UniProtKB/TrEMBL annotation:
Family membership: Belongs to the DegT/DnrJ/EryC1 family.
GO biological process: polysaccharide biosynthetic process
Alphabetically ordered keywords of this record: Pyridoxal phosphate
Residues found modified as N6-(pyridoxal phosphate)lysine: 187
Entry keyword annotation includes Phosphoprotein: no
Listed name of the protein: UDP-4-amino-4,6-dideoxy-N-acetyl-beta-L-altrosami ne transaminase
GO terms assigned for molecular function: pyridoxal phosphate binding; transaminase activity
Keyword 4Fe-4S in record: no
Organism name: Blastochloris tepida
Length: 392
């Protein structure tokens, strides 16, 4: 039996191990000098002015919403084809979610599906203040189109770029207030758990750094209680202040050591993914029209997931049968994602909704093994097994 191929897998090499081992015996395990170094390197790689590192992609999505002051009485548009965290962070602020439909071929929110969501009546007592495009699979959304619509309607955009590490300038935020990345092991690079938020706005970056550590302020110029902060014109040496509540979203220094080492190899990992995607495209093309890969466009790509769209009924089979057949050949697959508006929590809260594009994408999608250490032969093995699994 050949080695099992999961749908995604981290790349940890000897230099990553050495970097972590060196950090472990340093003075700092949590916030230390490597956090800033990692943020600077990440900003550079993502084409961003500022980067704020945190301890998960979910934290990296939550922080900009908190810093933008999102809360009860407001609503945010989120595409239904995404990981639940994109919607959950909106609810974590007390705001409500309005689910947008997606293009059935790409799974992406488009200017048209955003416009349709904005035409909906938002939950009672709320108004829509922003939207969160998701760069699903690594495909960048039409940010210029979404940005133009958002500007016209007075909305902000926060990008869920958790799939887009490595896409050229994915973090530049030319059309958004912020972009959030994840470094979970299946993503483009990993720190175990981790996230980074990028922004072009220095004040927003500062605010997110405060909210990342409980909301505490240590700069004397910002103190609101001079009676407690100062004595004889001197700042009390122990003093800090809590003007608003935040979280503990700090990323440990030791994980930033791993992040720095991973970032150095991002161009190589990304190039390998692009190569494997090209190989898949060639090998799966003959299986059309029953099987097609999600079409990857002209825009830069993070190459996170490699997704086949399969017309299971046409082959007289089901997705569960195809997944089981592939598993018998030591090939792992996954479904990204169950439409979030169908999750019991959201269906109970907002009632049943029909989003035809999301349903169509969900009905056909299957993520195939896709990670940098795969060999060209591995891709050929998956393509051949996929063909057998549908009886083609
Ligand atoms: C992974 C992911 C997240 C959350 O990231 P974590 O690091 O797991 O918290 C959010 N959105 C999308 C689209 C993701 O893939």
């Amino acid at each position: 039996m050949p080695d099992f191929l999961p749908y995604g897998r981290q790349t940890i090499e000897a230099d990553d191990v050495a970097a972590v081992a060196a950090a472990l015996t340093d003075d700092y395990l949590t916030t230390g000098p490597r956090v800033e170094a990692y943020e600077a390197a990440f900003a550079q790689a993502a084409g961003a002015a500022h980067a704020v590192a945190s301890n998960s992609g979910t934290a990296a999505l939550h922080l900009p919403l908190l810093a933008l002051g999102l809360g009860p009485g407001e609503a945010v548009v989120v595409p239904s084809i995404t990981f639940v965290a994109t919607a959950n962070v909106v609810r974590m602020t007390g705001a409500e979610v309005v689910f947008a439909d997606v293009d059935p071929m790409t799974g992406l929110m488009t200017p048209d599906t955003l416009r349709a969501a904005l035409a909906e009546t938002p939950p009672a007592g709320t108004r829509i203040v922003g939207a969160m495009p998701v760069h699903l699979n690594g495909q960048l959304c039409d940010m210029a189109g979404l940005g133009a619509l958002a500007a016209e309607r007075g909305l902000w955009l926060v990008e869920d770029a958790c799939h887009a590490i490595g896409a050229a300038a994915a973090g530049a935020c030319r059309h958004s207030r912020a972009a959030a990345f994840s470094t979970h092991p299946v993503k483009g690079i990993t720190t175990g758990e981790g996230g980074v938020t990028t922004t072009a706005d220095p004040a927003l970056a500062d605010h997110m750094r405060r909210l990342r550590s409980h909301g505490l302020v240590r700069e004397p110029a910002s103190f609101m209680r001079p009676d407690m902060a100062f004595e004889d014109g001197q700042t009390q040496p122990w003093y800090y202040e809590l003007p608003e509540i935040g979280w503990n979203y700090r990323i440990p220094d030791v994980l930033c050591a791993l992040g720095l080492s991973q970032l150095a190899k991002l161009p190589r990992l990304h190039a390998r993914r692009a190569h494997l995607a090209g190989l898949y495209a060639r090998l799966v093309a003959p299986l059309a029209p029953g099987i097609a890969l999600v079409p990857r466009g002209e825009r830069p790509d993070g190459w996170h997931l490699l997704v086949a769209l399969i017309d299971f009924a046409r082959f007289g089979t089901t997705r569960a049968q195809v997944m089981a057949a592939l598993r018998r050949e030591a090939i792992g697959t996954q479904v990204h994602y169950i439409p979030v508006h169908e999750q019991p929590y959201y269906r109970d809260r907002y009632g049943p909704r029909r989003l035809a594009g999301a349903d169509a994408y969900y009905a056909r999608c299957l993520s195939l093994p896709f990670f940098p250490q795969m060999t060209d032969d591995d891709v050929a093995r998956v393509a051949a097994a996929l063909k057998r699994s549908v009886g083609a």
